[in-house]
Amino acid sequence: MSHPLHTRAAAVCLAALVLGTVLLHESLTSEPGRGGFYPASVALAVTWAGGAFLAGGMPRDLSTYADRPAWVPGLALGAGLVAIFTLGGFVVGLVPAINAAIRDVLAYSARGSFLAVLVIAIGTGACEELFFRGALFSLLEGRQPVVATTAIYTLVTCATGNVMLVFAAALLGGLTARQRQITGTVLAPILTHGLWSLGMVLILPHVLEMTS
């Protein structure tokens, strides 16, 4: 028989996943530069963060693992991912279909408020980590949480209809889930995701311009 708290956490996570998937679709299928993107994105971040804290199960120690600061692997992996995606951008940017898929996402910062999009990208990324690598990971402990949370994160991202975002979700989700497993914290995944988001918004547009 399931413990009541576990059942409640599962119900909260399921509700957050359904609502979050709908909001993700609304935000990233709206027309760049129009108002719909911003409220949907803010609501999405609130959904992930609210779901995480209502479900519970968050790691208590957010700053250290094995007596070492968790921000070190977080920033290191984030920097590595920025480098990989930047170099990869020079290659995939030469493929018209992939170039177009990436530009579809970057159009939100190009046609709208750059600062607002940057804040949304970093903030939503942090909230995603709180939910997927925080509460959901804890809920699925003992059930292959790295594989399970990565698969769920990737499936949710399919709602964007953008193949490059789905690919990025699979890679980023898998690495940050493994990071959560190793460090036992969500700080490292949050920093990794935040630095990656920063690099994609600031650097990737220039890479695509060079390949055009």
Automatic annotation (TrEMBL):
InterPro entries, alphabetized: Rce1/LyrA-like_dom
Pfam families: Rce1-like
Transmembrane stretches, start-end: 6-24, 36-55, 75-102, 114-132, 152-174, 186-208
Assigned keywords, A-Z: Membrane, Transmembrane, Transmembrane helix
Domain CAAX prenyl protease 2/Lysostaphin resistance protein A-like positions: 113-198
UniProt-listed GO biological process terms: CAAX-box protein maturation
GO molecular function, one term: endopeptidase activity
Cell membrane keyword on record: no
Name the record gives this protein: CAAX prenyl protease 2/Lysostaphin resistance protein A-like domain-containing protein
Source organism (scientific name): Branchiibius hedensis
